[in-house]
From TrEMBL:
Keywords recorded for this protein, A-Z: Dioxygenase, Iron, Metal-binding, Oxidoreductase
GO molecular function terms noted in the UniProt entry: 2-oxoglutarate-dependent dioxygenase activity; iron ion binding
Source species: Pseudomonas monteilii
Taxonomic path: Bacteria, Pseudomonadati, Pseudomonadota, Gammaproteobacteria, Pseudomonadales
InterPro entries: Phytyl_CoA_dOase-like
Name of the protein: Phytanoyl-CoA dioxygenase family protein
């Protein structure tokens, strides 16, 4: 089984259907050329100064990683709010449920939020990363009875080839239980041109490839997760409030500055239970505390 390629004119419904069947999909020309160049200009100098990971097993001693991407480049907004990704995440993750409040029956869907962000540079000589599932951070069990926890994206900042460490993916592995061990022989590599993007769900086995070339392989990844789960990256500490205020309101909400449809995330201020969005709009609100 191989990964399918779709154009950037594909519909959300088509993208979501392929992902739910195969576990992932590659979108051609996900980034506009000016966005790709902007990301390179902002992130490559930072990666050049970043040492390899602390361990050889998973992080990779010859792999550079940086996070806090929304604080490091304005172009991350274009990656996150691209409808090809955002609306597909909503279609896959926001599965509604029914419940009761007294005698009133209601239907409600979970919100989504931005999880981890990373720029990852696999350098020459780096070996394969172990195949893994990203939803393991929440100890998500499989089968999961119809609800996925995450939709991840990996945007190719450089070309992804078999030689330079293109991501290994096992199509169909999202349908496996937790007893089946993944093997590299079952995987295919997500070969992409710079500007393409790989989308995959948290239950799909994948891992960085071995770089046997003489140049680094650079990608940018982030996740949309169910908002009822803890964010993998703590954006409240990594992003200053003044930086968050610069973002569109939709992005502020996706970063966690909101009260969800299930009433999670409220803040008590002056005896009232308020939406964090209201605090962002108050000029006197800073990191030091709340307004009373």
């Amino acid at each position: 089984m191989s990964l399918r390629y779709l154009s950037n004119t594909a519909s959300t419904e088509e993208i979501a259907a392929v992902i739910m069947e195969d576990g992932g999909v590659i979108i051609r020309n996900y980034l506009q050329p000016e966005t790709l160049e902007g990301l390179r200009k902002d992130l490559l100098p930072l990666l050049e100064q970043t040492p390899g990971g602390a361990d050889e097993y998973f992080a990779g001693g010859k792999t550079g990683r940086i996070s806090r991407i929304f604080n490091r480049t304005d172009h991350m907004v274009d990656v996150a709010l691209n409808p090809l990704y955002l609306e597909t995440a909503r279609a896959i993750l926001q599965t509604p449920i029914k419940g009761w409040s007294g005698e009133m029956q209601y239907e409600i869907a979970p919100d989504i939020q931005i999880g981890a962000t990373q720029a990852i540079q696999i350098r020459p000589g780096q070996g394969k990363q172990p195949l893994h599932r990203d939803d393991g951070v929440w100890m998500w069990r499989h089968p999961h009875y119809g609800r996925e926890a995450r939709l991840q994206i990996m945007v190719a900042i450089s070309d992804f080839t078999k030689e330079n460490g293109a991501t290994h993916v096992i199509p169909g592995s999202h349908k496996w239980d937790d007893e089946r061990m993944p093997t590299v022989e079952e995987s295919v590599q997500a070969e992409m041109s710079a500007g393409d993007a790989l989308l995959w769900i948290g239950s799909t086995y994948h891992g960085g490839g071995e770089n046997v070339s003489n140049a680094p392989r650079t990608g940018l990844t982030m996740a949309y997760d169910l908002a009822l789960l803890r964010q993998e990256e703590n954006h409240y500490l990594s992003l200053p409030i003044e930086r968050v205020r610069q973002f569109p309101e939709e992005l502020q909400r996706l970063l966690g500055w909101s009260c969800s449809s299930t009433f999670m995330g409220w803040v008590e201020s002056g005896g009232q239970f308020v939406n964090p969005q209201d605090l962002l709009k108050q000029e006197g609100f800073r990191e030091v505390g709340l307004i009373d």
